Amino acid sequence: MHSEDVERVGLRQASGEDGEFCYRLHKAAMKEYVDAIWGWEEQAQREYHERQYDPARWQVITLGGVDVGMISVDRHPDHVYLGRIEVLPEYQGRGIGTRLIRALVDEAERKGVPLVLDVLVVNRRAYALYQRLGLREVGRHGDGDNKIRMRREPSGR
């Protein structure tokens, strides 16, 4: 981990102009995993992205002012749900995701609710990160159980 990098991590609200960046990011960060489960079909993936892209709910992760990823978090009365976090491969392994997820762990802890997320079964690196941050597998779902539901309960529960 490069501590100087982590210090420069920021978030900004996504805008309509960020759609193409977020698609390219998704392709760079997730194509290997999507391909392993469903097969990567460019047109289908682009159409899926266009349906899912919601600048009001997405934030762009920056490092020293450079766009390096995205995060989407849904805050519910009874849990915090990390819908998506993606970091460009060349910026992975620098503690960026760890810092942001730890902040969500802290937020959920303050609220007294669990942090919940789903990870693809083939994404072993992300699964290991979530485990290191205290999340535990609580179930599997999706076609062929290809998604793992993970959860971190607040202290005292």
Automatic annotation (TrEMBL):
A family per Pfam: Acetyltransf_1
Signal sequence region: none
UniProtKB keywords: Acyltransferase, Transferase
Domain N-acetyltransferase as annotated: residue spans: 9-155
PROSITE patterns, per database record: GNAT (PS51186)
SUPFAM superfamilies: Acyl-CoA N-acyltransferases (Nat)
Superkingdom, natural source: Bacteria
Keyword presence, Transferase: yes
PANTHER family assigned to the protein according to its UniProt record, in alphabetical order: AMINOALKYLPHOSPHONATE N-ACETYLTRANSFERASE-RELATED-RELATED
Protein's name in the database: N-acetyltransferase domain-containing protein
Protein species of origin: Actinomadura miaoliensis
Lineage, highest ranks first: Bacteria, Bacillati, Actinomycetota, Actinomycetes, Streptosporangiales
